[in-house]
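Q: What would this chain look like folded?
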Amino acid sequence: MTAQIHSLWLMASPSDEAMLTGLVGDLAGRFGTLLFAPHLTLQGDTTMPPAALERAATAAAESIAAFSEPVAWVEGSEAFFRSFYARFAVSQPLASLKRALDPEGFDSFVPHVSLLYGPVEAAAKAAAIAEVNTRLAGRAIHFDRIGIVTSGQDIPIAEWRVVWQTGLRSS
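A: My prediction, written as structure tokens:
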């Protein structure tokens, strides 16, 4: 039997999630790419049992109050899942969540919310990045929950599903 793959996502508040979802949809339509739910990955592609993930996520969520984090800048790369994204600084709340949920991955942690997956024409992507950067850089995104998601590099994006979530502590 193949182990089920999950990820832990930090998720934006409903109003910021709606704004980011709209932006992902606009870019997907513009570039002919796949739709996906915007999120900040705290731990990706783990075979840890869901019950253990729930315990870890609950403990982490109880230790960190919901918080807002400004987008540092918007950038792109050649990486499929980081083709076009909003980057965040490694703030205290983000660092605490990462250390609690994926300490082995802390040194390579690049907190970001992807806005487009996959390769697209370079000049058009660069123009779109500049355009979105003027809209998002400095804008605070409010994060208020952690989700366990059936997702991973080997699971089709259309099949990614939030299977459990918990709210961060109220401030």
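The chain has a mean pLDDT of 96.
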